Amino acid sequence: MTNQTQHEIGMKALFNKKTAEIIKLIDTKQFDPKSLIGKVKLKKSVSASLKLMPLKWVKDNYKLFYVDSETLQRFLQEWKKAKIDSYLSTVFGGLAHKDLFQLADIKNIVKAYEKRLDDETLSTDEKAAIKDSYDYFKSLEDQGYTFLVLDGQHRLKYLFEYLNNEITFDVLKDYFSEIDRGVQEAFSAKDPKLKEKILDNLRWKELDNLESGHQFDVTKLCIYKLRLMICEKWINRQIEKGETNLESIVEHFYNSHKIDDQTNMENRIND
pLDDT tens, 99-127? Predict the structure, then answer.
């Protein structure tokens, strides 16, 4: 039997629309595909820095995000299902780096405005303008918000709804790598032998990719060794030996249940 990695388990659950399983893996930090969310721009006054946002971070912190539907997102409209399917597929397919969420760091902005308001060289009109902005961000801070969403409100909304099992989506396989699609095909196969063959073919192809550029070095030797191990595994498998092993397992299973049934019968008689 082939052991499944957490990533493979997550991909299998994703393609089979088992959202609850995916959420559980994310909550326990066992599943977070490479480049899942990408880089997020945190606005700190005028300057900005980049921050990685794992899915669990989005799930745990989304309620700290404030979307200004009157001033910044006046034309906020619901996405159609096809667009939701496309975006969430890119996220789990590892293409999320194509997007940047822009968030204003409310606490840092409040501090920056407080410092500017202490500047005695400012005119009355300048202070009044700064005070309006200060009051706006200070109000958000007092309400418990940490970030003001400048861009990405749709993406964050639907991602959070998915992570809370409020919506599901149809996976668009074109966004997934050959390995992810192959793993899904393997674990959808009912025949264990076929399943393992598909996985070993994927491993062989990946070894081809790793071999590129290596001639007569340690990496080349390691790849050669791994290929021999794959070949050896299949060469050593014989039909007669397999049938013998199966009969042995079935016999052991049958005998163990027979002993249990006999013991239960004796206990009833004694009672």
Answer: 677 888 899 889 989 998 998 888 989 99
Say yes or no to pLDDT of 1 above 50.
no
pTM: 0.62
Residue corresponding to tokens 């009157």: 70
Residue position matching structure tokens 């957490």: 6
- Between 58 and 215, name the one with better pLDDT: 58
Distance of alpha carbon 168 from alpha carbon 199, whole angstroms:
28
Which has the closest alpha carbon to 84: 167, 174, 175, 184?
167
